[in-house]
Amino acid sequence: MSVKFDLKDFTDFKDSLIKLSQSGDIQAFNKKVVENMASMYVREAKLNTPVGKRSVKFMQHGKIQTKYFNSEHTRQSWSIGKYQLNNTSGKVEVFNTSSYASFLNDGHRQEVGRFLPWIGQSKGGVMQGGRLKKPWVDGAYMHEKAEKALSKNAKRIMEITLKKWIEKHGGF
After folding, report:
1. What is the C-alpha separation between 47 and 117, in angstroms, rounded?
2. With contact defined as beta carbons under 8 Å apart, do 127 and 121 qualify?
3. What is d(CA 41, CA 48) in angstroms, rounded to the nearest whole number?
4. pTM for this one?
5. Beta bridge partners of 120
6. Strand pairing partners for 20?
7. Is 171 helix (H, G, I), strand (E, B) or coil?
């Protein structure tokens, strides 16, 4: 019993990769991989950023006032920086420009006992105010969740990008 292999497809694939590597288009491929990874990171970070427009009516100095909260701003503030590539690696900075994004991501301290007029019990649709009770507010960990998702999918992203790149350049 014997087994025969036709290595012509493998040889053609190898020749195609050699041709592509000599074309100088490797930098474009590297940039595309980094772009795809950065886009996936931002997508995951946005999905994990808590959002919600809301308003709260509260009593202050005998008058009903309204405080508006809009955390959609933090979700829309994710950005991708400039790409830095060389022959062996590529990197890009992904960041959030919102002034309170780090507090939302990592958590923050708060002053126990501080009075805030827009928290506490509601009476007739108007908040009566309350005091902060916990010294620490946990973070949402958007960066860490995005990093974990990217690590999990990095190989798949590279494989899909390579497949599209090879098809575009006349390979398999």
Report:
1. 31
2. yes
3. 11
4. 0.73
5. 129
6. none
7. coil
